[in-house]
Amino acid sequence: MKKENIIQLVIIAAVALIAYIPTIGWMYDRWTAAESYYSHGVLIPIISAFLVWLKRKELAAIDIVPVYSWGWGLFAAGILIHLISAFWQVYFSSGIALILIIMGLVLLALGSTYLKRLLFPILFLIFMIPLPMVAIANISFRLKLFASQISVFFVNAMGIRAVREGSIIKTAHSYLVVEDPCSGIRSLIALIALGCLMAYLSKLSRPRKIILFLSSMPIAVFSNVIRIIALTLVSEMYGSEIATGTFHDVMGVLVFVIAFICLTAVSKLLHQ
């Protein structure tokens, strides 16, 4: 590639980055907000960059053959979606358009072979883009009702009488309100990203990679059910104040620990 073309692409990429400042600011606000469902989002670009670094030797051996037709097409499509999204302040679609822009720039600067090698690190960036709050609220509502119902079943199976009224679990001497943070959506989103990463890095066959990735979803729900069961039992035995205090925060961390152990176990089983 000529020096003049490189300079042009650098300028275009810089202009695109400046145009994305509002969207990047929106993502950062969602990542760092109190009770954020996307606190993992700040790690995603770092992980993607690390995945690219792992491929550095493989990439160095590939010839640079720019593809201008598809490159400009993807770049133009991404910019158009971004401009429309920015006008209506729909930052989610703007974030998705960023993926198209990056893919277009890779084609313009490096070529299709590079894009094939970098496709996963680029697409992995999707996990940093927060879902619209309407979608979050809908998924969270359904998850907390589902998790509450399953938790009530297991609590009753343990010999402790419990009933569910909406998202409230009532026992003989106490009750537990399953709020949105306890719905499991935070762990679901983060664990889907983790499952995707583990599947990609594993040496499994493609069908088994898909199984490992898909297992992250029920594992996330299962881990959250364990959390709700534990909170319900502690609330019944020691009172709701204990259940909603430090123990609640500890169980929030244990959800990820349990889920990671389960994902690791599934991975080992699939490697056999």
Task: Give me a quick take on this structure.
This protein has helices at about 5-20, 20-30, 45-55, 55-60, 70-90, 90-110, 110-125, 135-155, 185-200, 205-240, 240-245, 245-270; strands at about 160-165, 170, 175.
Model description:
The model has no long low-confidence stretch (mean pLDDT 92). A three-stranded antiparallel sheet has the order 1-2-3, covered by helices on one side. The relative contact order is 0.09. The protein is mainly alpha-helical and 272 residues long. The protein has helices spanning 3-19, 21-32, 44-54, 56-60, 68-88, 91-109, 112-123, 133-157, 185-201, 206-238, 240-243, 246-271; strands at 162-165, 168-171, 175-177. The radius of gyration is 23 Å and the shape is elongated. The chain has twelve helices and three strands, in the order ααααααααβββαααα.
List keywords for this structure.
mainly alpha; single chain; 4% strand; 3 strands; 272 residues; 2 domains; 3-stranded antiparallel β-sheet
Strand order of the largest sheet: 1-2-3
Count of distinct strands: 3
Distance between the termini: 47 Å
Q: Globular, elongated, flat, extended or rod-shaped: what is the shape? A: elongated
Number of domains: 2
Helix proportion: over 70%
Cα-atom Rg, whole angstroms? 23 Å
Overall SS class? mainly alpha
Mean pLDDT: 92
- Sheet having the most strands: 3 strands, antiparallel
Order of helices and strands: HHHHHHHHEEEHHHH
Number of helices: 12
Poorly predicted regions are: none
Beta fraction of the residues?
Answer: under 5%
